[in-house]
Design brief:
The complex is a heterotrimer of chains A (510), B (370) and C (313). By secondary structure, chain A is α/β, with parallel strands linked by helices. Chain A is built from 17 helices and 22 strands. Chain A folds into three domains: 234 residues, P-loop containing nucleotide triphosphate hydrolases (Rossmann fold, 3-Layer(aba) Sandwich), CATH 3.40.50; 174 residues, 3-Layer(aba) Sandwich (Rossmann fold), CATH 3.40.50; 68 residues, no CATH class. Chain A has a six-stranded mixed β-sheet, with helices on both faces. In chain A, strand 21 and strand 22 form a beta hairpin. The relative contact order of chain A is 0.11. Chain C has 313 residues and is mostly helical. In chain C, helix 3 packs antiparallel against helix 4, helix 4 runs antiparallel to helix 10 and helix 7 packs across helix 8. The chains are: A alpha/beta (510), B mainly alpha (370), C mainly alpha (313). Chains in contact: A-B, A-C, B-C. The interface between B and C is large, with 58 and 54 residues.
């Protein structure tokens, strides 16, 4: 047998005309930890889904242990010894560890042989130092332990190749190092581990080889021992970014309008999603918040908008404490506008018409309504005006927004949140899933708001977009601001390092 | 062609009713009776005859109000199975207001009785509404249980503290004749309750269509997350809408007391609250169509006895046909016309709302560690 | 009261009544546990009970043997279950709406068909199951006759409750059932067909509720009367919540309900001055309060009421 566990040659995967994977070649050696590094949307997850049989590649071939194989389904992948650990765990909370392993296990008789499973699990757990009690119910386990259960599930089914999709994104920082130790032990036991990540420090800590991906291409394959974080960061973020800033005029920030002081929030799992975040935004300034998805940005935006109550800390607008104010007060008394990340579930009511969605923010204040009655003709006039000025392509304002394209939906939201003349404007991931034209429209709107003297908080995982619009860039990692840079200071390298959690000296918060 | 399909599709409930009547005629044939004769007598007896029409209108009143009590919360994604209990509590409160309050001018006393009935039903809706909004409990189970509690409370009161001395079975004293609702058809039982019902349906339609409250309710029903984002106080609306729904159910009971029975009887409602659910779906959750649906359903009930007398067919066949109607209506609403599913939409609404409220009967956020 | 407690025969009679009143609910509640464990609300338990009762009466009437009644009763209830599964699992109609629709249909259909087929004979006594004393056990003082001088359906219940528990907790299918009800995505990713598990769960559930209806007719009153289910399906629903979606818990809750029902009957007969209505309210008030105070602590199957669509959220 060759020492190559998995060989991918010329793998391409198209979604419509979009090339999610473009002639990807990767060689993964047996008994190594192989990292796949890249920004969001680089094609990592698509690649892994191809390996696990969830997607069929449009071009190229996969060889497993030296023979070319098709992987038609996850079930077959498992039979071939490939196991996958999804980012969202496939565990049933109310069942015990052993039961989760037994679930759907082929070849069981009429009764559950939990004892046999427990014994083997204990063995496996000891072998890899996982320290798992098979009798414990999963919901009682911390996230890190649950991940081990997922790994045990895969090991129990005799997988040789273990794929982990963004395994550390769900872990608390203190769980990460023991997780990485676990990976090393898997490698030492002869397993081949493929793990997808965008965190440089993890790659450095545990990977033998790293494949760096960008826009569906493999752009480099590096021996970790012969490289360093700086180089990998540069390769990951890639291109010499042409900072083709929009014609933005000179920054002339005024007084501080928006302040957040030492915000702390725990998420539903009890993990601190915000660990003392403090920021301020001046009039006529765009503060960009960069960082990898899931590092507390969503919580920050929701706290600011009033949808989430912080455990401690304060939010101030024009010096007034609004931490306890309702969403309604923030919107109408303090003139805060918010473009949420999730257009479909938060920003719009998909089954409402364009006109109805246009009044969603201000339906209960004049001139949209008077004495509790909706002023339908005004709403319609306004909606008609907005769709024309913001270039929302549609058949009629009585069309439900479900059938608008993402870009047109976003333009409608922007129109609604901007036309009310806010003082504070919070924008979260506004360009997700949009085409180039729509992105430009969104960014132009942000810049015009900046020129109009609004305090703008622009949160995005897409660095390029932040570079385009932001006057200052705060980088978030694990619920903290790891640094605030001006665009001139913000080289890809520095931002990449900050995003990976390496706080650098001299860039202390605020 | 597409327009025709769309049109056909929009009329799903009508097709469902026709299909139910068709299958029902199979049931009628089982009895060796001609379906034409049976349906003929039924509809003649229910709608084309003065006395029959009066009987239909008498039944329309509670069925319509119960239907409205189901429709209103359904707009916000809440399923109120408790109209039956709300009917009983409304009847109880209005009977108490009629019998126990000191004598006053009827012009004051009648409104007081009506308001008391609305309040009684309202409280019975408020309880599950509050528990849903602030404790994330399932309103369906709660309202279901509250039905039985209300029925028993009324049985207790009508057979105990308020029972007329020497009555053969549990009922209260008769209320003063001054408090009786006016009749709408001379020398029949048809009372003004149905007028109230139609007026309320109209008002509800206008409120839902033109007011900010209606807009807020629809927003909650269609997407509770977006509602919260838009600054709508979702919890308060849930409580309020359940109170209002309960009040509508309470009115159904009130008018039974003030308009028809003039006493508080035990077990006086033959499941009008559940008929309300049929009405809500038959009317496709549109209050403007509710009077029509309720009138139709009441006609089936009222015409059944006429039919039994005329062609000797068991009147219970109507109960079976009612069951077929709701099955077919439910099934038809589940059919897909485009990418959206009607009933799935309801479930999504519920899910959204539950996510917002943290319903213990729905999935909480996965992976909750403790 | 003291007189009552000092009379062993009276105690035996009372407990026996309690047990007999709780048996139909036990069948339905345990059935409901199975369906709800798979993530399907079974509000149609009520309809399945009346369907089972009707089928039992019909079978016993037409073929003259209670066994035929039993088979037909279970069959009718399973047809109702098939309808529920078709609407709720197949067409993805709101489970609660589908359940309510089935209740209304079953109540109406059985009333009509009973008058049509049983007609004038409806009040004549049908052949049924009669108590069989188990030698030895039935001689235990007080409790012996209560538990071991019962009919075959009661013994079947003794068997089915632990069996249900065993199936749910000790078999691979039960594991799939629990997984499907809690997190169908995980079950699906483990190669389990979610709709199939739900279909079978609903069928079993309705069959058991149908047994409850059979018991009413074949072991208790030996006639079919319209609407004789009288809310038992809804009590069963409350019982299974109170019993925390566990067959044993549901059993205990049902026994409690049967006990309060027997108490209510006794009071109605023996002390007419005590308002019996307050006692017939007990099961409902108890379940309501239990729900309110256990809310947040009692965890229903997490995916209950939510249709499952592959690849959907």
């Amino acid at each position: 047998m060759s020492d190559t566990a998995l060989l991918l040659r010329g793998i391409s995967k198209l979604f419509g005309t979009f090339r999610a994977l473009d002639h990807v070649d990767i060689e993964i050696k047996r008994g190594t930890v192989h990292a796949v590094l890249g920004e969001n949307g680089a094609g990592k997850t698509t690649l892994m889904n191809v390996l696990f049989g969830l997607y069929q590649p449009d071009e190229g071939e996969i060889s497993l242990n030296g023979t070319v194989r098709a992987i038609p389904s996850p079930k077959q992948a498992m039979e071939m010894g490939i196991g996958m650990i999804h980012q969202h765990f496939m565990l049933v909370d109310t069942l015990t560890v052993a039961e989760n392993v037994a679930l759907g296990l082929p070849g069981q008789g009429a009764t559950l042989k939990l004892q046999a499973i427990t014994d083997r699990l204990t063995e496996l757990s000891d072998e890899y130092g996982f320290d798992i009690d098979p009798h414990e119910e999963v919901w009682k386990l911390p996230i890190g332990m649950r991940q081990r259960v997922e790994i045990l599930k895969v090991l129990f089914r005799d997988a040789d190749i273990i794929i982990l999709d963004e395994p550390t994104s769900v872990l608390a920082p203190n769980e990460i190092s023991s997780f990485l130790d676990g990976l090393a032990r898997l490698r030492d036991a002869g397993k081949t581990v493929i793990f997808i990540t965008h965190k440089l420090d993890e790659v450095e800590a545990v990977a033998d080889t790293v494949t760096i991906m960008r826009h569906g291409h493999v752009c480099a394959e590096v021996e970790v021992a012969k490289s360093d974080a700086r180089e990998m960061a540069r390769l990951m973020v890639g291109r010499e970014v042409v900072h083709d800033r929009m014609d933005r005029g000179s920054a002339s920030p005024g007084a501080v309008i928006f302040e957040a002081r030492d915000l702390r929030v725990r998420d539903q799992r009890g993990i601190e999603a915000l660990r003392g975040v403090s920021i301020d935004v001046r009039a006529g300034e765009v503060l960009g918040i960069a960082g990898v998805d899931g590092n507390g940005q969503a919580e920050l935006a929701n706290v600011v908008a009033g949808l989430l109550t912080p455990d401690s800390g304060r939010v101030l607008i024009d010096g007034e404490d609004v931490t306890a104010s309702s969403v309604d007060d923030r919107r109408h008394k303090y003139a805060l506008s918010y473009v949420p990340e999730d257009r479909h579930h938060t920003g719009l009511v998909l089954d409402f018409t364009i006109a109805q969605n246009a009044m969603l923010r201000d339906f209960n204040v004049p001139p949209f309504s008077k004495n509790g009655l909706v002023n339908t003709s005004h709403v319609r006039d306004v909606a008609q005006d907005w769709v024309e000025r913001y270039d929302v392509r549609m058949r009629s304002i009585d069309q439900t927004v479900r059938f608008l394209s993402g870009g047109n939906q976003q333009k409608l939201i922007f129109a609604r949140e901007v036309e009310c003349d806010p003082r504070v404007f919070v924008v979260m991931q506004p360009c997700k899933g949009l085409d180039v034209g729509a992105i430009e429209a969104v960014q132009r709107t942000v810049m015009s708001q900046r020129a109009a003297g609004k305090a703008i908080l622009y949160i995005s995982t897409e660095l390029e977009h932040i570079m385009t619009v932001a006057d200052r860039i705060a980088v978030m990692c694990a619920g903290e601001i790891t640094g605030i840079l001006t665009p001139d200071e913000a080289t890809d390298e520095r931002i990449g390092t900050l995003m990976g959690g390496h706080a650098e000296e001299g860039a202390a918060a605020c | 062609m597409l327009a025709l399909v769309r049109y056909t599709f929009a009329l799903r409930p009508v097709w469902a009713v026709l299909l139910a009547l068709l299958v029902g005629s199979g049931l009628i044939l089982l009895a060796g009776v001609s379906p034409f004769a049976a349906y003929g007598e039924l509809f003649k007896g229910a709608f084309l005859d003065y006395w029959g029409l009066a009987g239909t209108l008498v039944k329309t009143s509670p069925i319509l109000l119960a239907g409205l009590a189901v429709i209103l919360p359904l707009r916000a994604g809440l399923l109120n199975i408790g109209a039956e209990g709300q009917i009983y509590m409304g009847a109880l409160f209005s009977a108490m207001a009629a019998l126990l309050l000191p004598e006053m001018h009827p012009a004051i006393h009648i409104p007081v009785c009506i308001l008391a009935g609305a309040l009684g039903g309202g409280l019975w809706g408020l309880i599950p509404g509050y528990l849903k909004a602030y404790h994330g409990m399932n309103e369906v189970i709660l309202t279901l249980l509250l039905n039985f509690i209300a029925i028993n409370i009324v049985s207790y009161v009508a057979g105990g503290p308020m029972m007329q001395a020497g009555a053969p079975y549990p009922y209260s004293e008769e209320i003063s004749q001054d408090l009786w609702l006016p009749w709408i058809l001379p020398s029949t039982d048809a009372h003004a309750g149905v007028i109230f019902g139609v007026l309320l349906a109209l008002i509800m339609f206008l409120v839902l269509r033109y007011s900010t409250v209606g807009f807020a309710l629809d927003t909650i029903g269609k997407n509770a997350t977006a509602a919260r984002y838009a600054g709508i106080p979702v919890k308060r609306y849930v409580v309020g809408v359940m109170f209002a729904a309960g009040a509508l159910g309470g009115l159904a009971g009130t008018f039974e007391v003030l308009g028809l029975k003039y006493r508080l009887y035990h077990h006086f409602s033959p499941g009008y609250g559940f008929d309300g659910i049929v009405v809500a779906f038959l009317a496709t959750v549109n209050p403007l169509l509710a009077p029509l649906a309720a009138f139709f359903l009441a006609g089936l009930k009222a015409g059944a006895l006429v039919m039994q007398r005329a062609v000797g067919l068991e009147s219970t066949v109507i109960e079976a046909i009612k069951g077929l109607v709701i099955i077919f209506v439910a099934a038809s609403l589940g059919l897909r016309y485009d990418a959206q599913k009607w009933a799935a939409r309801l479930m999504r609404r519920r899910k959204r709302l539950d996510d917002e409220l943290g319903d213990t009967f729905q999935a909480r956020t996965r992976g909750e560690g403790r | 009261m003291i007189e009552f407690l000092s009379n062993p025969q009276a105690i035996t009679d009372f407990l026996s009544t309690s047990l007999r009143l709780s048996i139909p609910i036990i069948f339905a509640a345990v059935g409901g546990v199975i369906s709800e464990r798979s993530g399907v609300f079974n509000i149609s338990l009520e309809g399945c009970i009346i369907g089972g009762a009707f089928g039992a009466a019909l079978g016993a009437y037409l073929l003259g043997t209670p066994v035929a009644g039993l088979l037909l009763g279970v069959f009718v209830a399973m047809m109702a279950g098939l309808l529920l599964a078709g609407l709720a699992v197949g067409l993805s109609i709101n489970q609660l709406v589908a359940g309510i629709a089935i209740n209304i249909l079953m109540l109406g259909l059985t009333s009509y068909l009973a008058r049509l087929i049983l007609g004038a004979d409806a009040t004549s006594t049908l052949p049924g199951f009669h108590p069989i004393a188990i030698p030895g056990l039935s001689a235990i003082p007080i409790l012996g006759p209560v538990f071991f001088n019962q009919d075959v359906l009661t013994y079947l219940m003794y068997l089915l409750v632990p069996l249900s528990w065993w199936v749910i907790y000790k078999t691979p299918w039960g594991l799939s059932l629990r997984a499907v009800g809690d997190y169908p995505v995980a079950a699906d990713s483990a190669g389990i067909s979610v709709p199939r598990v739900r279909l079978f769960a609903v069928l079993i559930s309705c069959a058991m509720a149908g047994l409850g209806g059979c018991y009413l007719v074949l072991s208790q009153v030996f006639v079919f009367t319209e609407h004789m289910s009288a809310g038992k399906g809804f009590i069963a629903l409350a019982a299974l919540i109170l019993g925390r979606w566990n067959p044993i818990g549901a059993l205990l809750a049902c026994l409690f309900f049967g006990f309060s029902d027997a108490l209510q009957l006794r009071l109605q007969f023996n002390s007419p001055d005590v308002p019996y209505q307050l006692f017939s309210m007990v099961p409902f008030v108890a379940s309501f309060l239990a729900l309110v105070f256990l809310s947040g602590k009692v965890r229903p199957p997490a995916a209950i009421g939510i249709r499952y669509e592959r690849g959907g959220k």
